[in-house]
Specification:
The protein has 13 helices and 18 strands. By secondary structure, the protein is of the alpha+beta class.
Length: 422
């Protein structure tokens, strides 16, 4: 197999390593200059992906182009129109992820309940709205991967205060969504252009930097996931959307994050691309290797794959400047990273490269690595993941110590009681 990865920051570096380890050829192009050191010496890099298209075309069905990030959907659709196998997303997936109002409209048409939401373009309009109807709510920018602020005050005064001193840029649309109490739960599945591959997964993300869900929102600091017990949620939330993804020619990952409570399921947002560390937390539970998974997504001949029962827990290991970027904060790179005797399937290198035979930190954000653990219960998987985390060493390494705690301490029992997990 030949794989050409078109990336900004090379988030899927360990996936490319797995492919190379399996005897496949991989070339990666990285557009962000501050990320050029990521996977240096570990994965071959090329400057211009367009010049590599003949190399992919020569491989026929064994040639695949991969995209990591949102925002490249139209280009992916264009390349598919030229006869290339492309894995990553689609223009439709981009719109679902970035245009929240559009995504909510699609979900409502398919019978899902939505928390009240208003889309606005000016801070003073939002402040007036909160004054007329005080409530706890969530602020989210539209058409952007930017700011999200989950309010805690029951009258929304914290959101109003934030808007007064830090309003969105002029003309930047945003939403105010009524806050819904419950257990935040995601459901996801790979889509092969025709249908979702089964089994689907169910997952619980931990996005705040600090334990106890305090501090800045990050891409993600840890995840609990399983391919077991997702059927009811998948059949409600994702399966009805299959014709829309088929019409769009989407190929890649689809995840819908929700809040679940005794009243039902309340959608929050889509991720229609490979997630980080989403791909890593699932890898130890997938029986096929990544080459087989990519073939399943590009041939549309198979709609199932084998997955292990039980749970996987991912711990994101970070270094400064996380949760900021090196465009905002000065932080050193090139620090040595030691990984101990972790079983290879549980070590997923992130923003690191090779220098003089030693792994060193690199990249834009400080997403240094992900370690995982699996087991028949969340407690077992969590124990193995933290045992692996303790084997990793680099200066100023940080990670949360409470991944999975809320599930173990009652949230999973609530989901069982409401009938949303097996």
């Amino acid at each position: 197999m030949r794989v050409l990865a078109i990336t900004e920051t090379c988030d899927l570096g360990s996936l490319y390593q797995r492919l190379i380890g399996g005897g496949h050829q991989v070339k990666v192009t990285i557009s962000e200059p501050l990320a050029n050191g990521t996977m240096a010496g570990l994965v071959p890099q090329v400057a211009d992906w367009r010049s590599e298209l003949p190399w992919i075309r020569e491989a026929g069905a064994e040639g695949i182009i991969m995209f990591e990030a949102v925002g490249f959907g139209e280009l992916q659709d264009e390349l598919r129109g030229q006869g290339f196998n492309v894995v990553g997303g689609s223009a439709f997936g981009d719109r679902l992820e970035r245009d929240r109002a559009y995504a909510f409209e699609i979900l409502a048409k398919n019978g899902l309940r939505l928390a009240p939401v208003v889309e606005l373009a000016r801070a003073d309009e939002a402040i007036d709205d909160l004054s007329a109807r005080p409530r706890r709510c969530v602020f989210k920018l539209c058409e952007s991967e930017g700011q999200t602020f989950v309010g805690t005050f029951p009258d929304g005064s914290d959101i109003a205060a934030m808007l007064k001193v830090h309003p969105p840029k002029s003309g930047q649309p945003f939403i105010l969504m009524d806050h819904v109490d419950g257990v935040e739960t995601g459901v996801g599945a790979f889509f092969n252009g025709e249908r979702f591959l089964r089994p689907a997964c169910i997952d619980w993300e931990h996005k705040h930097l600090f334990a106890g869900n305090m501090g800045e929102l990050t891409g993600e600091m840890g995840t609990v996931a399983s391919f077991t017990g997702s059927d009811r949620l998948f059949e409600l939330a994702l399966e009805p959307l299959e014709p829309l993804f088929r019409e769009a020619g989407h190929v890649g990952w689809v995840n819908l994050n929700t809040i679940i409570n005794k009243d039902g399921v309340w959608p929050l947002e889509f991720t229609c691309r490979f997630g980080y560390p989403g791909f890593a937390v699932l890898e130890p539970l997938q029986t096929p290797d990544w080459a087989e998974m990519l073939r399943s997504m590009t041939t549309s001949e198979c709609c199932t794959f084998e997955a292990c029962p039980g749970y996987s827990v991912a711990i994101v290991l970070t270094t400064p400047p996380m949760p900021h970027s090196r465009k905002q904060v000065k932080a050193p790179v090139g620090l040595p990273l030691l990984t101990g005797d972790i079983e290879p399937r549980h070590l997923h290198l992130g923003e690191v490269g090779m220098r003089d035979g030693t792994l060193v930190t690199s990249g834009l954000y400080g997403w240094t690595a992900v370690v995982t653990g699996v087991g028949p219960t969340i407690i077992d998987a969590r124990g193995e993941a933290y045992a692996n985390a303790r084997k990793v060493s680099t200066p100023n390494l940080r990670y949360r110590l409470d991944i999975g705690d809320s599930l173990i301490n009652g949230d999973f029992e609530r989901l069982l009681r409401w009938g949303w997990v097996n």
